[in-house]
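User: Sequence in, structure out. Go.
Assistant: Echoing your sequence, followed by the structure tokens.
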Amino acid sequence: MAGPTRFGAEMSTSKKQPTLLSGGNPQIAKGEGDAPVQAYIEAMPGWKRDIGRRLDALIERTVPGVRKAVKWNSPFYGVEGQGWFVSYHCFTKYVKVTFFRGTSLEPMPPGESKTAETRYLDIREDGIPDEPQLASWIEQAAAIPGWDGGSPKNGGVAM
């Protein structure tokens, strides 16, 4: 409920909307668990929000007990003790899904990376192109050692 502060100004009860960074990617504080991931998804603009919801649900169905976090303004999904296996990020015309060990997947996701093992899948407004294939990649990625998040000074931690 809005009311006066001790300085007499009205307090707002509305929640501040997250800032959208370049390409419409939400700026969400890093955090562990489902809550920051859901905050990220709800802050995704327009059609990208539906893609985020579908990705999150598909990952949860495919990998029961998946570990979630938001790091570097992106949702990360991992398996305890194995590291992070997938993440996604909003760009202007697509949502980029990152498979950290994508070169180990069969067939490999189509998008190449400057990082040796990483592969990408770009999902555009018309939706997830091949959901069964995406589910297969998620299942494969969760079954192999993932990315540990890099050095501790850059926010990385072994899971």
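User: And one key feature?
Assistant: Residues 47-62 form the longest helix (16 residues).
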